[in-house]
């Protein structure tokens, strides 16, 4: 058997690198060698934040290897500096990334160990084009829900005007869009924010547009999706001219019951920032299902006013909490000292008597703790999947990108959480935060009728079990991934036989 070789390339943000790293391990476990290609700046950031160089190679028990390769982006090897020219950065990353892919592919062909496929994630349509130019098969790894993929698909296939109409600020709150084959009704806040023409980041939509142009050149392209069949059965089947294949949840398998050194390797809780705080010990000292975990991912910063409301909400709710407030870090990964001094929360002392504030934590470890009762999350897809796979009910507190759609799925489809309602100025007030926390963590029965809390906990347990089933031997994602790799193995064998 010839072991197929795959290149995996991802946008260098943590929410993109995390699932892609987990995917590289799953591919290796299924019998492929993987080259993980990232910009030098991302590799440096990993080394600096964890205090050590990530291992250049990780070997799976079956002998497959995950290795890192880097490429330099002219002028940006220390990363993109705030205030820089984002368009120039993007075009340089594209130029240097495409060149790096070509060089890897050509040199592997010359060495007689050619690559079988290029796998790339969001915002990198150029990667698909480069593979096509090189005559190399390519597959996209979609790291958001299948439902979000479908919405983008429809946006570029006849429903753009309807969606833009629904997104307009003057559209009535009741104005909703339905889309083919999806049983949901989407209001403005349920649709990806980049579709809003007034959004500051609306330019991002052009990456998705280019991606769908790449798909048009392919015959029924396959898209591997970080979800699982049971979670999004309808959405995975909604679009017939593309094939969506669930291979998730892409969280470290050590947290899905399988334990072993390989399951814990390449675990981004380690290779990104590491917090020295003793939060795991603190969590273990708390009563079961009583702690509120609050975190808004790796990118999002709320304005001071919103942070104060969250703080008041937590204080009035009165239960212990673990809150991640990320320190602002510069490109050299040094803490940026707050020169204005106005960022400090007014009630920090009171907060620290009730709970714990940390600059970072190993989120999957935290979500695995028995003391957790609820996750207040921005609904980034990784956080959402991690919470589902670890059985933690949520208060959905979305801001942008796919998060509104994810919040809708949490509240209406999977029924494992409630979504906050911002006021007219877009601020979620402390009373509203307390109301949502009470719904998720409050009393257990209401006049003998099962409470919202009990329903959410029951559903959280159900999805946790289904998530685990899906990645176990014989589970849906396990089989889908095996079939994908088996095809690559077959093709690599055939080519080597012909040579
Ligand atoms: O203290 C922390 C906070 C976060 N994380 C991890 O960081 C990742 C965060 O990913 P995600 O929840 O997806 O949030 P973002 O970092 O905001 O991700 C971006 O990318 C995602 C994937 O495309 C999108 O779904 C989000 O909307 C987008 O903001 C997760 O794996 C978390 O476990 C930690 O380990 N420790």
UniProtKB/TrEMBL annotation:
Homology family: Belongs to the UDP-glycosyltransferase family.
Keyword set includes Lipid metabolism: no
GO MF terms, alphabetically ordered: quercetin 3-O-glucosyltransferase activity; quercetin 7-O-glucosyltransferase activity
Species name: Trema orientale (Charcoal tree)
Entry keywords, A to Z: Glycosyltransferase, Transferase
Name by which UniProt lists this protein: Glycosyltransferase
Top-rank taxon, per record: Eukaryota
EC annotation from Swiss-Prot or TrEMBL: 2.4.1.-
Enzyme class, UniProt record, top EC level: transferase
Keyword Glycosyltransferase: yes
Taxonomy of the source species: Eukaryota, Viridiplantae, Streptophyta, Embryophyta, Tracheophyta
């Amino acid at each position: 058997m010839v072991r197929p070789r795959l290149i995996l390339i991802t946008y260098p943000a943590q929410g993109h690198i995390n699932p892609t790293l987990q995917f590289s391990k799953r591919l290796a476990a299924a019998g492929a060698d993987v080259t993980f290609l990232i910009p030098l700046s991302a590799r440096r950031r990993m080394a600096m934040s964890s205090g050590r160089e990530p291992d250049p190679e990780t070997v799976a028990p079956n002998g497959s290897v995950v290795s890192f390769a880097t490429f330099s982006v002219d002028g940006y090897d220390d990363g993109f500096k705030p205030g820089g020219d984002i368009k120039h950065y993007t075009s340089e990353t594209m130029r240097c990334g495409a060149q790096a892919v070509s060089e890897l592919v050509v040199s592997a062909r010359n060495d007689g160990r050619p690559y079988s496929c290029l796998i790339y994630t969001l915002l990198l349509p150029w990667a698909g084009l480069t593979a096509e130019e090189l005559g190399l098969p390519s597959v996209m790894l979609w790291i958001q829900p299948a439902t979000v993929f479908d919405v983008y698909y429809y946006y570029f296939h006849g429903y753009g005007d309807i969606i833009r109409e629904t997104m307009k600020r003057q559209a009535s709150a009741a104005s909703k869009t339905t889309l083919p084959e999806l049983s949901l009704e989407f209001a403005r806040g349920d649709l990806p924010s980049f579709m809003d023409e007034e959004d500051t980041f609306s330019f991002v939509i052009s990456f998705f547009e280019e991606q769908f142009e790449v798909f048009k050149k392919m015959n029924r392209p396959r898209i591997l999706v970080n979800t699982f069949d049971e979670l999004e059965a309808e959405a995975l089947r909604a679009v017939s001219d593309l094939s969506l294949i669930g291979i998730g949840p892409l969280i470290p398998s050590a947290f899905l019951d399988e334990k072993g050194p390989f399951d814990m390797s390449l675990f981004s809780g380690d290779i990104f920032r590491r917090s020295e705080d003793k939060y795991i010990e603190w969590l273990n000292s708390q009563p079961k299902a009583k702690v509120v975990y609050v975190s808004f991912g790796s990118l999002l910063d709320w304005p001071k006013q919103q942070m104060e409301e969250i703080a008041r909400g937590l204080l009035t709710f009165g239960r212990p909490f673990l809150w991640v407030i990320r320190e602002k870090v510069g490109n050299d990964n040094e803490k940026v000292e707050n020169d204005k001094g106005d960022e400090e929360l007014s009630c920090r002392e009171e907060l620290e008597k009730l709970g714990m504030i940390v600059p970072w934590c190993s989120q999957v470890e935290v979500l695995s703790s028995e003391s957790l009762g609820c996750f207040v999350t921005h609904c980034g897809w990784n956080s959402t999947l991690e919470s589902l796979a670890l059985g933690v009910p949520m208060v959905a507190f979305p801001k942008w990108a796919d998060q509104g759609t994810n919040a809708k799925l949490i509240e209406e489809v999977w029924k494992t959480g409630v979504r906050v309602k911002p006021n007219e100025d877009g601020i979620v007030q402390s009373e509203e935060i307390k109301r949502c926390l009470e719904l998720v963590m409050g009393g257990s029965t209401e006049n003998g009728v099962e409470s919202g809390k009990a329903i959410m906990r029951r559903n959280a347990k159900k999805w946790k079990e289904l998530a685990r089933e899906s990645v176990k031997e014989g589970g849906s994602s396990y089989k889908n991934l095996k079939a994908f790799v088996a095809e690559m193995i077959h093709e690599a064998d055939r080519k080597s036989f012909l040579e």
